[in-house]
């Protein structure tokens, strides 16, 4: 039997600064209520978002003042380097290997830009070999935790015995804007957070689960649903009000199509492991996938404890699912800018 790609380990990391949802709501009211007449109509989003606290790259007081592009990217470089190293070192230790055993590193992030990229900056610290292949990926947003896992697994699949490190890292809070008096900016303030996750994948015999299949679906004419607008100040959120109903209407058929291309059906999946984009999005996912209400319990727990960290969030959910016991087959899914849906199926080993 030919070796298949296995997930060897999964580790997470978050910044040390914590912002409670009550603190975020109070700070937003202080900063926006007197300048944005629609703020009072949006204030309820903090209470209804399903979030108790989140981790942030900087303490709450940092967000009281204006920060330009340079300041934001300098902060990204510093904090992202710390989180990348922490998550990667944990994942390597769990897998029982060192950085010198990694043949390729795939990194996804859509909340900061740097050249040289994070993998190169941390190569010496993590012990990467000089012949390591580096694949930094930008722009996949919330879907990147699943899309990147698919990319990393496909790289490993064509190279028997090779080992791939996959890192998803986002510092969403650095996109907070004092100058954006818009509904999407207020919602983003209530939802988004910072964190990182790392996986080790290997085309070999051992592991937690086999990466069975991966696929994506790009919805036509949906560029305005989610994304960034970029100006001199930094990233500005684009977020359509129609996202939960869109997910409820379109995600189920898209996932069915992805599964069918691998000879699978929805009934073959023992557990859907979903990116918890927000409380309403989780409910929409349960509806469109035909799940029982409140069945996405790990998703709600991660959202409450960590907020929406974009790409790594679904890997935090996967970590909990592994801890409590994967079913025979699970499907890891997320949606993101494009607008797109991504799906990776995992088969339990043992």
Can you walk me through this structure?
With 350 residues, the protein is α+β, with helices and mostly antiparallel strands. It is 37% helix and 25% strand. The chain is built from twelve helices and 13 strands. Strands 5-4-6-7-1-8-13-12-11 form a nine-stranded mixed β-sheet, sandwiched between helices. A two-stranded antiparallel sheet has the order 2-3. Strands 9-10 form a two-stranded antiparallel sheet. Helix 9 packs across helix 10 (279-288) and helix 11 (297-306) crosses helix 12. The protein is globular. The mean pLDDT is 93.
Give a brief outline of the structure.
With 350 residues, this protein is of the alpha+beta class. Helices cover 37% and strands 25% of the residues.
Main attributes of the structure:
two-stranded antiparallel sheet, single chain, 37% helix, alpha+beta, 350 residues, 12 helices
Topology record:
Elements (H helix, E strand, L loop, with lengths): L3 E10 L3 E4 H12 L6 H4 L1 H5 L4 E4 L12 H27 L8 E5 L9 H4 L1 H4 L6 E5 L6 H14 L5 E9 L11 H9 L2 E11 L4 E10 L7 E5 L4 E5 L3 H18 L10 E4 L4 H10 L8 H10 L6 H12 L4 E8 L3 E9 L2
Helix pairs in contact: 9-10, 11-12
